[in-house]
Amino acid sequence: MKAAVITFPGSNCDRDLATAFEKAGATVSRVWHKDTELPEGVDVVGVPGGFSFGDYLRCGAIAARSPIAGAMIRHAERGGYVLGICNGFQVLTETGLLPGALMRNAGLKFICRPVDLRVATADSAFTSGWAPEDVVRFPIAHHDGNYTADPETLARLRGEDRVAFTYVENPNGSMQDIAGLLSANRRVLGLMPHPERAIEAEQGGADGMGLFRALLGGMALA
Amino acid sequence: MKARVHVMLKDGVLDPQGEAVRHALGTLGFSGVEGVRQGKVIELDLAATDRAAAETEVRQMCEKLLANTVIEKYTVEIG
Question: What does UniProt list as catalytic (chain A) (predicted)?
């Protein structure tokens, strides 16, 4: 399986994400925001955490209009897998690949600590290694993770079983405790918590590897 | 030609930053502030000379980048 990890100016979790993909057995190429195409044969695109373009205008807004974002959108539209973490989740909502928006945390503070998450659905390549209601622990590190969407969108996400993870204790004010979301075809996942920062016991836990192993094992060919 | 874009959160979208500003104003003794909403002003210098065309173009800029219409609304002033 081939993964491509995007680097924007201000990305700071791109190496961690590449390491997690490699640890799960993927061949990883690194792509730059000015690239206009993904490498040939890429199965999954990783959109990393960080502060792309300094969070100017809105978190993820400029990155979502960068040349590589166009290639990522075309990849998603032809059924390719995309994993957006933290700032990557913000980028995915700004492109419209995932609905809603991520606003300033309700408590206004930057929050950086491990949190417990409930697996809300096992029906995706990302979450198939767990059972619904399983609890996993990933770190969060964000200022703008307060998930917001209109009531119709929230109802549709629930109806289509597209909430991937919820917070056990809501840290940021997210509606319906939403921590991660799937696209309609279940091949695009965006989440605020960082599975790539929980891949070795030395990091305080390795729950995040469950996501990368399941993804590498369960991806249908794009 | 100059254009000025005001971007505000839509009515009904909670504004935690505005709330924090309201609390701070209360602390300073401004007791009569019943609500604060915080937004952005973006000023553009345009080469265009036709007002209507400029407004149409700036509205497209708002839809494509300057505002996130999922949570924000905008107004455009030309000149």
Answer: 86 (nucleophile), 194, 196
